[in-house]
User: Fold this.
Amino acid sequence: MHLTLRRRNALNGYLFIILWLIGLLIFFLIPLFQNFYLSLTDAQLTTIRDNSYKMIGIQNYVEAFSVDIEFVPYLIQTFTNLITDVPIILAFSLAVAMLAIQNVPGSVIFRAIFFLPVVIGSSVVIGRMFDQFGSQLVLFRSQSAQAFLYVYLGNQMPAFINFLSRSVFVLWRSGVQILIFIAGLKSIDPILYEVAQVDGASSWNQFWKITLPMLSPVILINIIYTIIDSFTDYFNMVLRYIRVVTFNLTPNRLGYPSALGNIYFILIFILVIVIFIIIGRMIFYRGERS
Amino acid sequence: MENTIVKTKLQTKREQTKRFSLERLQGKQARQIISRIVVLVLLIDVGFIFLLPIMRLVSQSFMNIMDLYDPTVSWLPRRWAWENYTQAYAALTFWAAFKRTILIAGGSAVLQTLSCAIVGYGFARFKFPGRDRLFLLVLFAMIVPPHALIIQNFIQVSKFGWLETYYPFIVPSIFGMGLRGALFVFIYRQFFKGLPWELEDAAMIDGAGPFRIFFKVMLPLAQPVILVVFLFSLVWHWNDTLEPSLYLSRPENFFLPQRLSIVESALETFQLRGMWGTGTIMAATLLVILPLIILYAFTQRYFVTSIERTGLID
Assistant:
């Protein structure tokens, strides 16, 4: 059989991804569609065995927003956390990355330390660490520091300490972002900085006019990564709630938590698409053969 | 006469400029040194924040109840409570659980590293109808949280009869799916996209087929990415508790992180709630992550440099 070059190329492409396509169908697409179907039924763990559940339309979705008093607050909390966390994580990881690429003794060791949180534990282990110390994690363990703060902040003190310990927790989740930023900073051509220096640009200007624009694709990657990471986080309230509804409440309903999961990931999906559209037009690839 | 005056004038001027530039140089050097010190102090600061929880973990894992309640003990215990570790080791059934975990997490990591490389290469280097739409599916799979599908996955796995076995962790990895498989496909695709086309052209002229090119030319070039993907995959599989808690319910099948909850319930039965059990739980937590820390200590040098060379950032 004789094939044109283009045909052969296409065939080889399919050969490379065929295994993945099968896997995608079995382990992702079919469960996804069944999930949508299930979310339109009143299925329970007891009724799913003998198929005695029935279609109830979008009633589950209506229930999530009108009857359930816990789901919507969790959802709102997740999104507000995200709005505060993403800028903190991004600013912090960019600052740390810029520190870490400076030529100081021991910079390799610091980079190793900054990446340690990723290796050590995304979930359970960090949970243990932070559960134990709770809000006392940081600097404000000592009574004198708390008394000192109380003088200035009055009743706002607990909230302030809460915020600080939360930010340490947030910083502990920025290992991957720091590394991606380091890689991004290193890929910027040093000639740009030299030219700017010759023209008399200050470091402040260099940061805004060179570093930030050159990093824009990396920033997009980091924003997306941070969003997905915090939405699938071990501590995420919505996901915890869905698990509780599925496995810990009797009767073990299956249709309703499916609907909750669908609402949740549709919202994430919309958010990611919006972010892609707003800031996603700056990515440039080498090596694309047209 | 006049000549000498001009000469001396010139000399002084030259000296002045020389001194001037020297001063400036010194000022510049001084500023450089100061900025380096500032950077170093900031780095130590931030590094301390990162290390603090781990240091606490280590320090408390050696404390017994007396030291934990003693306000004069902050970091170093008065008596090193090694029995925390023997208790934790026994309650975790460390060696058996460790072997299980390394076998399954390592096995799926190896399979995922290879299968995702094949898929990523397919997306990066071939033009076929529907490629871009299929690639959107990769991105889509990356976004959908695994939690959203747990009910279906559970039903599916029980239909296959895979409950209480390790198939649900291994089999999806063969197909390039599994834990964050889509992310790895994405990383590989970005890397392979950045390689020059002459590599394939030359190999093709020498008569190599696409699979031969992939295994003989492209995979060796992808070493830095392979290392990164493998380590990420291993770490994430190691730390994952969502899927194991769905598919495994017998404690003798549990992976290491899951055994932590066993340690807790064991302490509970002995009425060792609260501070009594803290030391042991800390020791157990440290034992669970110790293999990863050791692995990281050996590979971090390659890890950090190779993320920079993956071409992920371009």
